[in-house]
């Protein structure tokens, strides 16, 4: 083989090696470009996936927060029941207020005696031609349950108490009306006194409205001298009424003491601030209006 032939073969071998090297570099460069181009797509996809998860978590969190938002609450009523209305006064007290009618107690009708009840007594001491002494006594009890839409039992009782005092001070036909606060009778109490002239005689009306916790007590007591007998002393009547009112308030508290055998309402119904606490009770021949606002004197 000639020297020229050997040189040509060596040149061709060098050329092939150079082509292979260039081809290898081009392949590697292409792979790098492809990988670099794919990277933004992967990052974009990852970013979308991450954002989607955040939105979902935020919505789920908001939904959970809304579903567990606290419900409105109101303070529970302190007293859950009422005493038997015809048993709130002792025989001794009844003997002083209605001497001829201690056994005449008549319970008013009520569809829920744990929320509203009443009892009335009347007494007629007939002295023949010398005339007679008439007495009438009525006790009404009204208990209020707490209600998230209306307020606590105590607040509702306060509203009804104010209304009862207002009603007593503005009784139809009342004369010489006087009203004053009464201490030592429940959480608050007002005594209202006035005269009512009827064809039978002049009736001396005494009304005491008291609130103890979520219960309102209204005690009405009046007396008259009939057929020519003398009109009873209003001061003495009020003294007796005040004593009786304190006794009724104590009976309400006792009925709700721990361990008491008093009835507990089964229906859970609540008394309405606009309803009367003496449903079905007998009416006094003298009392033309119901009892009950804030203590002020009115003449």
TrEMBL record:
InterPro entries: DUF3558. Residues 111-120 have a biased composition (Low complexity). Residues 1-31, 49-76, 97-122, 252-299 are annotated as: Disordered. Residues 11-24 have a biased composition (Basic and acidic residues). This is DUF3558 domain-containing protein. It comes from Streptomyces pharetrae CZA14.
